[in-house]
């Protein structure tokens, strides 16, 4: 199987370049008989959309999904769900000069080396615009897992962190601010930071934390498709992601076993949850939580050195409309990828559970 | 495809429980005509083997691999390589009491919940002994990628870190000490720490850093099989791993774009390498480096609360011979999994490269 | 992987129902740098199109393919090729009565039983219209295998057979007649037969023979992905196909070894080719040839008994415009599926061949 | 996924050469909690074993399977089932001369061309001995599908056919004779034929018919994993198979729609079953039946021309102990492969069925 498919039973295959006619995908393996909530799908697309607030790119993308198959009278039929999202707002001429130059820390150079040819407009296939298809599929994936709750939020922007465990946060506040941070005081500091960075023509990284609640016990397929292994693959497949940790994460590496072990309650739940809801690669019914690191956006509104195809270095300033901080817009993408992992493992477990 | 297979062209499927008759696997898709270096395979198994030094478990495992097919007169034939590693040193009676109790932060409970039945001896399938098959396959994978160099080492034990970039380390020192740390001063502090922890009947976590050199440009299959995404899956599939970061990693999330971007040299290499050798999911020819976090071993030689199958909490002390710190022995496992990822992507790139 | 994907490296995933907005697919794993011959793709679609002659359905389908990604300035970029074919000519109201009745020897009943819900218009997903996506992908697959020649033709209609080995036929005559039979005398008998059958409001089956020439030695992946095994899967996945045989086929089962063995020439070719170009699952460089059996179309322009959803039997006559014999139109579909098999195995062999 | 794995959820990966130390495989995805009937597994191996009667090869193979994992106290644990079958009775020196010569209609030549190196002893990987692993896995697969009945028998040997529909046969007679033909009169003619052929130092082909009863409605995953498409792949992956047909098969290609359509009864069953229990790629609850053609064994006890590695033709007589007719021994292999197909589709349907 080639690299544009994710999942084994509930699968998503995507296609599309930033400035092609459309992006889209095929969801195969979606169970039949599900009355889809199209508003929920639309809502997720709106959350991912550029141009939502003063701190993100002002580029306009319509991002209306068009379903072409697999759904009849609003109900999934069990056949593959084909969908497209048209690229209306793109201006190709903005990018023509990128045919022969390679931007630093972009994929331009490696695509040229790997494929010998590339659609250089707006990053082509390597553009984060590709994630629009993941958001569509994730929004459907969420609807096949009963009672699941998947919530992501911005937990840091540059040096500014939320200093509370997720249990002390009010998730209903996430969508009330531009950075999608549930701690409002921190949120406003983050927003200030992003504005300051943008004034400098610079960009900044950040982290997203994701919490998955009401996960049935038993999801995950050891030894290679452990739940955390698939979450890690899913997250690292998102543009600009540099790291993943779950439960105690990198902090756990500094701890002693006597501090780290989660002791049981009588009913099989645990008193603490440094394990992050997963043991031996299998969900244990506790909250799953993980953190994802995003590097700063590579396109700067400052002068930088670029490489040309004939081996010269030229100095240039980034063009177009870009996010100074991509992290707020990545929140629905993290949720979508988590949903794809859980949905697929949920169906696998259904297949093999005792009968 | 079920969860015990890794890879798409060069694939490893493993089987085996800690206390069954044997563990093993099948490597399918290995190119023909490769004269195998069996000493190299043996050496890797020795590195993973328990009982190598005073700071690791004194449990004895022979760990001799027996190849059953796919190799004729020392040369790979292109047919599947079946192999087994017998479980000689196991004493099953040590574990009989674990039939009805669940150890904290072990996989006992979730296996029972997921499968309804389990081989409880020594962790069964969830035992780290399963990684012996990965080491065999990794040692073969390394031999199919020309010039590749994959080097892992212990970069922290609990609070003790190497405070140097990997470029300043002498990799030839890694195997000269029990903790597999190339910085000898730090190594001896780590060793002290582990001894101290063992005296307490406790355990401790740590991190491993891995550096892959001489990687051809162009490996990685966007968008879901990005090189870093598969490395992340591979690492998080190893027992006790809690986190993965590559290049700038979580630190990158605190940086500005103007600090983080890697500027080009005329020949396409970069002056810095915060990208960690990967752009847009594809190797760019620079060193790939990443870091993996391991939690402390869950079995303690102290009293702890265990859950029984009928919902009681009992107090007990761990039995058997266990590592106070698993990280030194995990070094060859990290290398093996990295080799599996690179070998598979190398063959995929061969398939699709221009002809 | 769910059931709408074919192939392992060069993969096709399809979606679409007969009367939905569009059908289409994603080709993933196509090598980059191929200058596509779009006329060749168009030509194949025209061959599959209904309404081409007096003996096939007069239903009109435009069948224009629209490529959405993976191709830039006419050259493949190595990224997934998304494409759609719109359903313009469909009239949904023709089919509304099929919501609650099941036609004999159609998929209506099993789709209802399997999925609980179905798009009943025109057969929905089970319609042969789905093969339009295969023809698009097959036309691209042919272009990645150097020098390959894949030629299918109608070798029988009902009781009327070509009584010559394929070596005695002039393939350039295939497209000169409505039944796509290279033997013109037989072709006109077949055409008469089909006209006669149509007058009766009946339908008739037939066979297609396919010959693949200039296949490199070494394609096929034993033991389960033998070349003939994948061809068999590919052919049996086409609507209405009931059988597959290659080389000596079912006749071979009546022969003695001394009659059946193909003796070698000095250069490794064989004097005879009862093996059909494949030994042990691997192409041997001789012509590959196979035969595919199609049942008669199930929709009759006569009265027949139908089952209703509430268990009644009603008598009714088929509606719409249907082929009395589907075999001539299936010729390009057989070729397309053969091309998909060969292209995928060709890339697999490239991956694993010695370097 | 490489070519030695079959299935998507219930998967079998096999390894092993004819004269290596052992053959074996890994069954992954087998549900947990199944109390295995080991006698049933043993019985199937006995049926496949050489040397069972006067009409098959007198070569001795012990064919004892040894399970290494995935089963604890006789119950499947849901973890991969590793198994081996040792090659005890092989004498390698018998085959040493085959290093540099290629037997006609054997896989020797193509293996040499594809892989550049081969284990030439007894056919190596291309030997039918490989099917021993399939029989083990098939015997387990049968045990996970409730009530299923899979029965294969020899329906023709050379020109001698059973001239009755399968419904008129007494399946309990299959194992009462050496050719595994339920019609005893035909059986004795077949046996005579095989003895006559053996006296000539020749071999002969034949066909096997397989009937699958009590299949749940709804198995099969259109469009590429249609039930008949996977059965076809499975059958054509067996050594010496040249053709597959199901239901009306090649005869159906000569029929009219008015003769071929299966009319419904009120309860959804059909009055006739030319469809062979499958519509649109999905089981409809009626009997599934299909027929498989086997070519005559290529090794003859007569003089024949062989090709040498340096391009000479030499005359030689086959050596070793070989079946004059392989068809009786292939009966359990056909059943095993059918069981693998059904088991995998059964689990896939469980995954996606409504909840």
TrEMBL record, chains A, B, C, D:
Entry superkingdom: Bacteria
Catalytic reaction list: 5-O-(1-carboxyvinyl)-3-phosphoshikimate = chorismate + phosphate
Record carries keyword Ribosomal protein: no
Residues engaged in binding FMN: 125-127, 239-240, 280, 295-299, 321
This protein's pathway: Metabolic intermediate biosynthesis; chorismate biosynthesis; chorismate from D-erythrose 4-phosphate and phosphoenolpyruvate: step 7/7
InterPro entries xrefs: Chorismate_synth, Chorismate_synth_AroC_sf, Chorismate_synthase_CS
Keywords, sorted A to Z: Amino-acid biosynthesis, Aromatic amino acid biosynthesis, FAD, Flavoprotein, FMN, Lyase, NADP
Example of a GO cellular component annotation carried by this entry: cytosol
A GO term, aspect molecular function: chorismate synthase activity
Cofactor comment text: Reduced FMN (FMNH(2)).
GO biological process: amino acid biosynthetic process; aromatic amino acid family biosynthetic process; chorismate biosynthetic process
Family classification: Belongs to the chorismate synthase family.
Self-association and partners: Homotetramer.
Protein name in UniProt: Chorismate synthase
Native organism: Flavobacterium croceum DSM 17960
The gene coding this protein: aroC
């Amino acid at each position: 199987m080639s690299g544009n498919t994710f999942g084994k039973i509930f699968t998503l295959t995507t296609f599309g370049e930033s400035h092609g006619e459309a992006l889209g995908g095929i969801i195969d393996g979606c169970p039949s008989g599900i009355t889809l909530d199209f508003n929920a799908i639309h809502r997720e697309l709106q959350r991912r959309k550029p141009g939502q607030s003063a701190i993100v790119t002002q580029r306009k993308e319509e991002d209306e999904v068009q379903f072409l198959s697999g759904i009849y009278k609003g109900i999934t039929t069990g056949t593959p769900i084909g969908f497209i999202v048209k690229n209306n707002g793109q201006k190709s001429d903005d990018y023509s000069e990128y045919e022969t130059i390679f931007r630093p820390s972009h994929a331009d150079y490696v695509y040229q080396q790997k494929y010998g040819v590339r659609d250089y407009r707006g990053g082509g296939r390597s553009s984060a615009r590709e994630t629009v298809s993941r958001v569509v599929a994730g929004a459907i994936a969420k609807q096949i897992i009963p009672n699941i709750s998947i919530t992501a939020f911005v937990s840091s922007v540059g040096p500014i962190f939320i200093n509370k465990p997720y249990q002390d946060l009010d998730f209903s506040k996430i969508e009330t601010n531009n950075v999608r941070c549930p701690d409002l005081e921190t949120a406003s500091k983050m927003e200030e930071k992003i504005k300051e960075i943008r004034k400098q023509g610079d960009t900044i990284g950040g982290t997203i934390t994701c919490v998955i609640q009401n996960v049935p016990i038993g999801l995950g397929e050891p030894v290679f498709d452990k739940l955390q292994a698939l979450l890690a693959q899913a997250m690292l497949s998102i543009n600009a992601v540099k790291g993943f940790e779950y439960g105690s994460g990198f902090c756990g590496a500094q701890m002693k076993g006597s501090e780290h072990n989660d002791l049981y309650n009588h009913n099989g739940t645990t008193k603490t949850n440094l394990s992050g809801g997963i043991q031996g690669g299998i969900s244990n019914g506790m909250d799953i939580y993980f953190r994802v690191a995003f590097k700063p956006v590579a396109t700067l509104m400052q002068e930088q050195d670029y490489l040309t195809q004939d081996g010269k270095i030229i100095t240039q300033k980034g063009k177009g409309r870009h996010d100074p901080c991509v992290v707020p817009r990545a929140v629905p993408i993290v949720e979508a990828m988590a949903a794809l992992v859980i949905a697929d493992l949920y169906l696998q477990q259904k297949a093999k559970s005792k009968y």
